[in-house]
Design brief:
By secondary structure, the protein is mainly β. It has helices at residues 4-7, 60-63, and strands at residues 10-12, 39-40, 66-70, 76-80, 86-91, 104-105, 111-115, 123-127, 134-135, 144-151, 156-162, 178-183, 189-192, 199-200, 206-212, 215-221, 228-233, 236-239, 245-252, 257-264, 271-275, 277-281, 287-294, 300-307, 312-315, 320-321, 328-329, 335-339, 343-348, 353-358, 360-364.
C-alpha cells in the first residue's frame, strides 16, 4: 500500500470537472475492442495521411510521435511513426455511448491508455504499438471511473469516481470526488478521499477553484494536510515549464470581457496583458498560445502567440470556430496543434495555419531522454 499523500506525483491526463454528470451505464455486456495493431491508418486526409498540397509544408520530423483520435465515429487511435506515417494502433468497440477520449502516455512512452465514455470498463491500456491492449478491471465500488493520469513510475493509474453533480453555488467549495488507484501489475485497487477536488499537479498539490463574488479564485491545496493557499482571481491558470511564472485568464462578468495576464508562480505580481482565454505554454517556456473571441456573436475565435513577457509574436492568419481549444505544442516549440471541431490544424509561430486532416484529442508520445 503506497502513501497517497506523499506519492501523488502523477502525470495529469485532464482537469477533473466536478460538475460532470455520470450517465447511466448501458445494460449490454462488456464491449470488446477491435484488433488493430500498428497498421497503416485508413483514408486519412491532409498531412496526416495521403499526400496533399499541405503536406510539403510540414516536415516529417515535426509530426513524429503525434497521437490523436480519428475515424467517422472517433474510435480510431493513431500514432505518427518516425517515418511520418500514421499508424492505426487501436479501434474502440462499436458501441453507442461515446467517443475515445484523449490518449495518455506513460512517463517513459512505453504504454498508453484511452477511455470511451463514462461507463464501467471504459478504459484500455496498451503497449506503444497497440499490442497487448487490455480492458482494465475496476470493482463496482469505484462508481463510474474516469482516468486522470499515470503515477510517475508508470505502475498505476489514478481514477476519479463520479457519483454526484455539483451545482456551483457561490462560496461553495467543489465536492470532493473519491479516487481509486489501480496497480496494473497486481490489479490491486486502493481508495482514498483527497482534501479537495480539482486538478492534480506534479508536485502532489491540488489546484481548485472557488466561486467568490462575481468570479472564481484559484487555490492550491496540500494533498497531505489540506491546507489552502490563495493564488489569484482566475478561471484558469497554467504554470511555465520551469514553474517560475503562471499565465491566467479571468472573466469580468459585469463587463462581459475576459482578461489574460501573467503572474509569479505564487499568484503575486499580476500583469494584465489584454483579452484572451486558455493560455498554454510552449515546451521551452518562451511562448504562450491563447485564443480571443471575434465578432459580436462569439462564434469565432482567433489564435495568438505571445512571448513569456507578454509581447505578441503572431496572430493566426484566420479565425476558427469558437468552443474548441485543444492546443498541444510541438516538442521543439516551433508551433502548436489545435482541434477546430472537425480537423487538426498546425499553427506556426508566424501565424500560418496548415490543415493536418481529420482528427481530435492530440497529444505527443514522450521523447527519449
Amino acid at each position: 500500500m503506497r502513501s497517497v499523500g506523499r506519492a501523488l506525483t502523477l502525470l495529469v491526463a485532464l482537469a477533473v470537472s466536478a460538475c460532470a454528470t455520470a450517465p447511466t451505464p448501458p445494460s449490454s455486456g462488456r464491449p470488446e475492442p477491435r484488433q488493430a495493431a500498428s497498421t497503416p491508418a485508413p483514408e486519412a486526409t491532409g498531412s496526416l495521411g495521403s499526400a496533399t498540397a499541405d503536406e510539403s509544408a510540414v516536415a516529417v520530423s515535426r509530426l513524429a510521435g503525434l497521437t490523436y483520435v480519428t475515424g467517422a465515429a472517433a474510435r480510431e487511435l493513431v500514432v505518427i511513426d518516425e517515418a511520418g506515417e500514421p499508424r492505426l494502433i487501436f479501434e474502440g468497440p462499436d458501441e453507442p455511448w461515446g467517443e475515445l477520449g484523449r490518449p495518455t502516455w506513460s512517463p517513459d512512452g512505453s504504454q498508453l491508455f484511452v477511455s470511451l465514455g463514462y461507463v464501467p470498463g471504459n478504459t484500455w491500456v496498451m503497449d506503444a504499438d497497440g499490442g497487448n491492449a487490455r480492458q482494465l478491471e475496476l470493482p463496482p465500488e469505484c462508481g463510474i471511473p474516469a482516468p486522470e493520469g499515470w503515477w510517475a513510475d508508470g505502475t498505476s493509474i489514478l481514477f476519479s469516481e463520479f457519483r454526484d453533480v455539483w451545482l456551483g453555488r457561490p462560496g461553495e467549495v467543489p465536492p470532493v470526488l473519491e479516487r481509486c488507484i489501480l496497480d496494473l501489475a497486481s490489479g490491486e485497487v486502493e481508495h482514498f478521499t483527497p482534501p479537495a477536488d480539482g486538478r492534480w499537479l506534479p508536485d502532489g498539490s491540488i489546484l481548485t477553484f472557488v466561486l467568490e463574488g462575481d468570479g472564481q479564485v484559484a487555490y492550491l491545496v496540500d494533498a497531505t494536510t489540506g491546507d489552502r493557499t490563495r493564488l489569484l482571481a482566475a478561471d484558469a491558470v497554467a504554470w511555465s515549464p520551469d514553474g517560475q511564472r503562471l499565465a491566467y485568464h479571468r472573466g469580468h462578468r459585469p463587463l462581459g470581457v475576459v482578461e489574460l495576464g501573467l503572474a509569479d508562480a505564487d499568484g503575486g505580481n499580476v500583469q494584465p496583458i489584454g483579452s484572451g482565454k486558455w493560455p498554454t505554454w510552449s515546451r521551452d517556456g518562451r511562448f504562450i498560445a491563447y485564443h480571443d473571441s471575434e465578432g459580436a456573436d462569439g462564434l469565432w475565435t482567433r489564435l495568438h502567440v505571445i512571448t513569456a513577457d507578454g509581447r505578441e509574436v503572431a496572430r493566426a492568419e484566420r479565425s476558427i470556430p469558437a468552443g474548441y481549444w485543444d492546443a498541444v505544442w510541438l516538442p521543439d516549440s516551433s508551433g502548436f496543434i489545435v482541434y477546430d471541431g472537425t480537423e487538426l490544424l498546425l499553427v506556426d509561430l508566424d501565424g500560418a495555419i496548415t490543415s493536418l486532416g481529420a482528427g481530435s484529442s492530440p497529444t505527443w508520445r514522450p521523447q527519449d531522454p
